[in-house]
Amino acid sequence: MAVVPARGGSAGVPLKNLALVGGVPLVTRAVRACLAAELVDQVVVSTDHDGIAATAREAGALVVERPAELSGATASSESAVLHALDALGADPEVVVLVQCTSAFIDPEDLSAAVRRVLDGEADSVVSGLPTHEFLWTAAGAGVNHDPAVRPRRQDREPQFRENGAFYAMRASGLREHGHRFFGRTAVQPVPARHAIEVDEPGDLELVRALAPFIDRPEPIDVDAVITDFDGVHTDDRAYVDSDGREMVLVSRSDGMGVSLLRRSGVKVLIMSTEHNPVVAARARKLGVPVLQGLADKRTVLRDWLHIEGLDPARVAYVGNDVNDLGPMGEVGWPVATPDAHPRVRAAARVVLTRNGGSGAVRELCDRVVAARPEPSAQAVPAGPARPRFGPVAIGDTLVGDGEPVYVIGEIGINHNGDLDIARRLIDVAAEAGCQAVKFQKRTPAICVPEEQKGQIRQTPWGEMTYLEYKERTEFGRDEYAAIAEHCAGRGLHWFASPWDVPSVEFLEEMDVLVHKVASAGVADHQLLRALAATGKPVILSTGMSTLSEIDAAVEILGTDRLIMMHATSTYPLPPEEANLRTITTLKERYGVPVGYSGHERGLQISLAAVTLGAVCVERHITLDRTMWGSDHAASLEPAGLEHLVRDIRIIEQAKGDGVKRVFPGEEAPKARLRRVTA
Prior knowledge:
The protein has 24 helices and 29 strands. It is an alpha/beta fold. Helix 2 (50-59) links the parallel strand 4 (43-47) and strand 5.
């Protein structure tokens, strides 16, 4: 039996036994260590304090109410142990006195001490720190050494400093002698990092600082993660250039962590007191909602949890400064960065090991994902697809309802076979704020119909057959390697529409993140089967297709990693043929994320598609609509693309999150204009 004396009084640290270390009360840490010890059968907490008693019961211990005469500062720990044994009528062979003052107790050390008593090696065992220290009296005399003889460390046997963590003893001997040391006494060595006793505030601060490095990281089982921004996603510094533009430092690894989190079904939200464009920009990149300019985070958090139907006990909030204490107090898993304000670290249930801007968010995401159940390996029963609407992961980006619109700059064949033009169009897409660019990949000998191969065409490179022209404008391995490198440098995804099976194999060798089925390929089942076999996400355009043709394509591709694009394959597209309500039809019929691939002139139809729920938008782009080639006339020039992305992001912000609240900008007119009557 393990007995943990935990009275309410403490001279050095008020209510010390409830003090948080790594977000866990000291008494809870002691109980958990005992419960985890293989040779401990029962754990008892002896206390005179209701709060300690409740905490101990929650941790899984039995509680014995300690009488006042055994609760004073002069009462011995042995008296508490003997009282607990008598109160429970217990007669264990071995009793272990475990003290809350040691924040770090290894369950294996506890079991080792018990085993030494059970095996007859000792009657009592004390935890001790091996040391080679030389001790002196105040008068300058050597205590454990002769000052005239200073042997080397390796020539001296270690001595042991009692650290007060635990004492294992034969219960009958304790009853007979009334104290913990009797008969043969042995020492159970403990590592230096476990040997700190909490007797004063400085000790408490020390163990709190050590906890992130000593505690074994545990999975964090929650349904939602809410984060502050400055000091959590960033290193809490701002960089300002000569034009006054503000930038922050973030960790790329956070993006993948958030992506994994969202994919596992965990809701994510960023909350910030600042109203800074950089916060919104990072949230868009991560694909998570953001609430900014908050004067009272705690109240907004309560409203958000209520609207989302979340149990606060199953929510994590990670912060770093004192304005995070309110929302941290609302959730079951308050989390702090290691460089957080001391009050925030003290309030945290978990203190991370990585600082903000250096992977703190990724660390938290990994621990949350570790607690999620593995996806079921059972086959999905036959029947119509159940609406789920995504999201689908493309690399580190989620595409689906509730995510930022995924904007694709369709370069297609508008590069005219010129790698320099392709690079310039990639730059146009990056500077406009797109997430991806798309090309088209063909094997001309397969894709060009026989009757067209020999037709003569007038081209910018002179007169040639149509087959020669298509081969002249087709990029190969070297060009696509250069494209991949340039896109990586600009932070863009790239992929292509393969028009034949060898092109699928080519793109697989280039390791694209996703494949696109052009509207012309919807009925090419050989092509669709090759794409399905890759296991990659697929974006399926539906232009010039009937529902029965789309049904057949979906039967081959499946819906697990499918994004569908509503499209009308008229170039340029007249408004009366846009039929945007088909976006809703496709979502309801197939239960997958649905976007819009536009071939119209102007921006209005694409923007309307976003308001109707399109999760991604694809538009052809060109350097100049008057350039030679079939697709340039229905393409957007750089300024048009920039305006499209800008307006999509404005629409996203304007749609909001559905949480009804008073915004900061309303406070002044509310105070001036609002009348309140009974």
